[in-house]
Amino acid sequence: MNCEAMAQVDESSLITTEEVQVKDAMLVLRGSWAAKKTLPEDWRRGQLIQLQKMLTENRAQFVKALHEDLHKSEVEGYYTEMNLIEHEIQHLLDELHELMQPEKVNTNIFNVPGWSRIYKDPLGVVMVMGVWNYPIQLTLLPVVGAIAAGNCVLIKVPSVKYSKSCSAVIATLCAKYMDQDCIRVVQGDRVMNQAVMKERFDKIFFTGGAKLGAMVCEAAARHLTPCALELGGKSPAIVCPSADIPVAARRITWGAFLNSGQTCVRPDYVCVHASVAEQFLQEVKKCVKDFYGEDPQKSEYFGRIINGEAHTRLKGVLKEARESKKATIILGGEDVAEDRYIAPTILDYGEDEAAFQSSAAMADELFGPIMPVFRYKDLQRVVDYVRQGEKPLSVYPFTTVAAEQELILRETSSGGCDVNDVIMRLSNPDLPFGGVGQSGMGEYHGRYSFMAFSHRKSVSFKTNYLDLPVRYPPYVSWKVAVLSVVQQVHTAQQMRTLKAVALIAFTVFLRRLGWPSDLLTGLVRLLLGRGQSLHN
Q1: In terms of pTM, does the model score above 0.85?
Q2: DSSP 3-state assignment of 183?
Q3: Active-site entry in 81, 199, 230, 365
Q4: Residue 86 belongs to a domain with what CATH number?
Q5: Would 533 be classed as within a structural domain?
Q6: Active site residue 230
Q7: CA 137 to CA 510: how far, in whole Å?
Q8: 204 and 64 within one domain
Q9: Residue 264 annotated to the active site
Q10: Is residue 197 a part of any domain in this protein?
Q11: Are residues 367 and 483 in the same domain?
């Protein structure tokens, strides 16, 4: 073997510091899972309370870190990050006991006498991978569900090359407040990503871009590990003539420029009917001034682009719009590289559909404070355009006409919709949040977070009564005759009638045998699928 080949072998056999760190953490987590430490309700409830304390007692640290990484104001940082997690924790604390109970379901005629339940098993050792644009919320919100469901959790915080301050705060405080035998945090960049992807988990919950999401899926497939992917895409706002234009402008402006446009569910572009386009654009310009003042760069409420690379990319979008003359920059367009600042910008493509669709602004998710606007005349063409592209994370119809709402909702596919608003559905824990197609897979928030980290195990309880011989071979003629009747497909109403008749006949038969009424009542409850497990 030559020296070059030996060097290659030696290099491939090296274990990085990050891999050692991950293996050590996994050894502890697997040991805790084997010891069943996370199964009791008391442990789950206690850790949720600890996480709640961590957020409330260290609000100032989190706010400071968010400002350092993304120039988020205290108000925006708290209400779009920590407060959402606090609500999620309280929601699951309130419902935890109920969620942990077996779920009662109907029992079909082939399993009578007996009853059926669904048990929610924790998956085991799961990994949650956070992302930099909402580094606190999108890292810790899934962890709430993972803890509530009874799992051990490895948390991979966002890359230190993006949100260095927030990642450090999460790691430091989790080590202080959370059970280190069951919940571990690792920090790092792409090298750490590679290290964690070599391990086998029972589920991976990833939030981020589609490119890295595909890499996560590829790595997970080697271990047959299920994944939940919360991605993004180009989410349209569609403004119809019947919309309340001032309200639509306010809400879309807020959503488009929140966190300097670095929000996965932001309205990425706007299609506004030509008859109300001028009014809408004037209202948007007014809103930008009201929200951020004459100079948004000086506003404490307007964020910054995460790093120089992202700033350069967005600057290229503005350059293409100017040089190609496909769009008119009717607001903003300024950039300051050393401050990672891109002004709130509106690109007006008029009614030029070809220019709009072929522009750099429409090539990919913008993830910045740029709002491309197209003036449409035919709503069906807009709906078809959305339908023909990749499925977005959100669609935002602004209309008070029910027929227009239904057209958009029924003929487009997306992770979710807010009608006459943007983003706010995420605050409702009773609505599942997640993508579809290229915008993601899996869902969470509220009880859906609990389910995201649970396995719904089907359980059929049977008694030793009525072990009918027709079930077993040899299948002689009389058994075949009985089976030919029983196996026929019936409607739900027919099955309810059949079960009721059978119960009545069986109860009468047992009564004639002299069975006491209380025993008969218990048996009827059992036959109806309302019995309890055998150890109760």
Answers
A1: yes
A2: strand
A3: 230
A4: 3.40.605.10
A5: no
A6: yes
A7: 60
A8: yes
A9: yes
A10: yes
A11: no
